[in-house]
Amino acid sequence: MTQAPYYLKHIAYDSVIFGFSGDKLKILIIRYHNTGLYALPGGFVELHENLNDAVRRGLKERTGLDNIYLEQFYTFGDVDRYQPDVMRTILEANGHSTETYAWLLDRFLSVAYYALINYNDVVPTPDALSDSCDWYDLDQLPNLMLDHAEIVAKALQTLRANLDRKLVGMNLLPARFTMGELQKVYEAILGEKLHRGTFQRKMLGLELLKRHEKQYSGAAHKAPFLYSFGTE
Amino acid sequence: MTQAPYYLKHIAYDSVIFGFSGDKLKILIIRYHNTGLYALPGGFVELHENLNDAVRRGLKERTGLDNIYLEQFYTFGDVDRYQPDVMRTILEANGHSTETYAWLLDRFLSVAYYALINYNDVVPTPDALSDSCDWYDLDQLPNLMLDHAEIVAKALQTLRANLDRKLVGMNLLPARFTMGELQKVYEAILGEKLHRGTFQRKMLGLELLKRHEKQYSGAAHKAPFLYSFGTE
DNA sequence: ATTTATTGTCTCAGTTTGCGACAATAATAG
DNA sequence: CTATTATTGTCGCAAACTGAGACAATAAAT
Distance from residue A196 (CA) to nucleotide D30 (C1'), in Å? Predict the structure, then answer.
């Protein structure tokens, strides 16, 4: 967080970072110091930085990960996003002068992205203004500030629409996974149960999964195959 | 076009305005005075204006139409969009001082939209800096400035992807149209021939078209039905 | 050795899709 | 007035795809 001329004015980004654990879809939410305000992880674009690079830079800081599956889905630009009181509250709670950071009190458009990551690879890390960065079940989110709830809703909607066009599900899993795990990811995203046989037939028919040896599963049933993403 | 503090800095929009005529998909392109530069119609967002409203305002100016089918599809934010020389050329060719309009020489992100309109309803109108605003066949575009060719390509790609999810084709036609005309629209968008019987069966199966009386067509064959969009 | 839970696969019926065929018909040509 | 031409609405059939249940296989637990 630096002073005014370092970032493009009026432009912010927010990222909806999806993870999958315990059969549930989750997203990363930060909480600002001493305010009780919850928000999506976001940031600003440096004067000589590509927009997409700015978002990847923020993702790296928040998750520790490079090379994340990332997709831009909408730019939010309504006037009623402009609530300088909220930003003033955050700055003051952090002991920052609202003069030095006056540029933050201006109107912002937000370019929204969603990211899909492997839950287990992540070490969620708060930024300078926040005291936590944590996973929340998608159906148990705290009240989010500004229009961030709307951003999450549109992210999920876009993710669902992309699910049958792009092969996206496996970005939420480790490199090797079972068919059952993959199906649970799809079910969590779509919010509905899928028929096991049909799902398996469809996934294998795409010829995008490589089948490996059997998994040694500590479970009381037949050991499933492991798959990885990639034809060869 | 007004002075600096009237618009949000760093933010522009561009619109890919699709029309359909003579079995071809076309888009509106403007040419800047005395420069030979071709570009998409675009504009800026007023300080207290919703982003979407700004785009509709621009569409109204360029086409004379309200209530246009409009969809945001991507925000372009690479650094190499920043080519102040191009904007300087345009300003000078129009006799504008680059001091008064210095804000135009800054870096811009562009939020891109596509619009679908009825070709026959439109009176294309140039803006203050351009001397023409005309239809061009999608496959015979002039060289477009900056990354506008890339914007057009992504617009078409998004339109194609949306074609099987949203019912979008009829926005390019008059209120009443024949099944053959509708099919030609789809073929122009997808860039491929479709089977007549299958197309008709699918469209009617959606139960979104109302069938009217026969058309008196001056053509030497059976007169087709007319349809309009809307169930009832 | 038996039970339990889950996996990989198959079959079958129902639906959708691609494609050709047929009669119907508005204008035109003879 | 009749035949021709071009295009339309519709049907039928085969191929492909989909949803759902059924069956044997098997790793761990009893």
Answer: 28
